[in-house]
């Protein structure tokens, strides 16, 4: 699935829109809005790490199975996401260039993109991530679709709870951990375009020496309460897939089970009046709206983080499909 998407991203796509159709669409949009709906900056953060949890989020490697930790966010408008940050723990003293790969996936909320009925392996799938990721929203450093930079925030940072290998209901807390707190800034070479909706953000990290990356929890509730409901963080590994478990409620448990958000941020631009994915006029309407909002397609591409107008066309064609 990812390979097909990456091939699509790297294959030139011919976009054909007649000048007359484009002008007509732009004119219709211009006339249709007494007060135009314009693109605005988008920024969401779950706040600084709170030291309550470190949860494994690891790319697969020899002898190590994939483990995914995901937390939710909401988009009030169609949004072009240009970059993200995550905060996590490396073993103390790990050089930053040991960060070999980072992959980002986005998920709808179950049951969208899910064909497997809920199983008896997990207490519930209500409000979990879907079975499978959104094809067009996957990016990875190893595939050349994102770049990273990392900064050490604290050479010795402790989290009270960890969930690493015990990915099963009732497994409990694996104990506290002290590690090197790092912030990884992720820039998407091809920005991610998503329509209005409720999603899960899932980053994974691979270290060259096989050590684990523990994704650190952020604030709960989120500062400023930017959306509701704010769902808790979920986790799964390859053995549990396609099911997911709630990190606090299902795994750590207790008389009053804790709930967690993960520490991440997303940055981009909202782009109102976009076309509707799956509709025949989606691409033309989207391109016309962008030209109207930014003055030209070249200006839209530059502002939204695309490398060129052709890259913007290709991105919105995938969005519309």
Structure description:
With 321 residues, the chain is an alpha+beta fold. It folds into 2 domains: 2-38 and 275-320, no CATH class; 41-268, no CATH class. The chain is built from 6 helices and 14 strands. It has helices at 2-10, 19-32, 247-252, 282-294, 297-304, 309-320, and strands spanning 40-45, 53-56, 67-75, 79-90, 99-108, 139-140, 146-159, 161-163, 177-194, 197-207, 214-216, 234-237, 245-246, 264-270. Strands 1, 2, 4, 7, 8, 9, 11 and 14 form an 8-stranded mixed beta sheet that branches. A hairpin with a 7-residue loop joins strand 12 (234-237) and strand 13. Helix 2 crosses helix 4 (282-294).
Pick out its properties.
about 325 residues, alpha+beta, 2 domains, eight-stranded mixed sheet, six-stranded antiparallel sheet, 6 helices, about 35% strand, globular, disordered N terminus
């Amino acid at each position: 699935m990812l390979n097909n998407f990456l091939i699509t991203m790297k294959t030139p796509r011919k976009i054909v829109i007649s000048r007359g159709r484009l002008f007509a669409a732009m004119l219709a949009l211009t006339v249709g809005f007494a007060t135009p709906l314009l693109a605005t900056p988008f920024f969401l953060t779950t706040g600084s790490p709170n030291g309550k949890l470190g949860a494994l989020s690891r790319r697969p490697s020899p002898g190590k199975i994939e483990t995914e930790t995901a937390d939710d966010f909401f988009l009030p408008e169609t949004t072009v996401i240009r970059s993200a940050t995550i905060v996590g723990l490396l073993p103390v003293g790990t050089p930053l260039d040991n960060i070999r790969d980072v992959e980002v996936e986005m998920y709808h909320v179950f049951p969208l993109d899910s064909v497997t009925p809920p199983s008896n392996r997990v207490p519930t799938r209500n409000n979990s991530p879907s079975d499978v990721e959104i094809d067009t929203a996957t990016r990875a450093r190893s595939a050349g679709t994102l770049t990273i930079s990392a900064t050490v925030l604290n050479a010795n940072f402790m989290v009270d709870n960890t969930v690493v290998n015990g990915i099963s209901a009732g497994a409990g807390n694996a104990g506290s951990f002290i590690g090197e707190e790092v912030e990884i800034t992720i820039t998407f070479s091809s920005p991610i375009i998503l329509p209005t909706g409720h999603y899960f953000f899932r980053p994974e990290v691979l270290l060259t020496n096989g050590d684990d990356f523990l994704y650190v929890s952020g604030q709960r509730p989120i500062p400023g309460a930017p959306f509701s409901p704010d769902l808790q963080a979920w986790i799964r590994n390859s053995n549990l897939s396609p099911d997911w478990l709630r990190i606090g409620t299902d795994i750590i448990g207790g008389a009053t089970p804790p709930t967690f958000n993960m520490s991440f941020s997303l940055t981009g631009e909202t782009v109102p009046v976009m076309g509707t994915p799956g509709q025949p006029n989606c691409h033309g309407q989207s391109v016309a709206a962008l030209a109207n909002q930014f003055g030209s397609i070249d200006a839209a591409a530059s502002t939204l983080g695309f490398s060129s107008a052709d890259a913007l066309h290709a991105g919105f064609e995938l969005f519309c499909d």
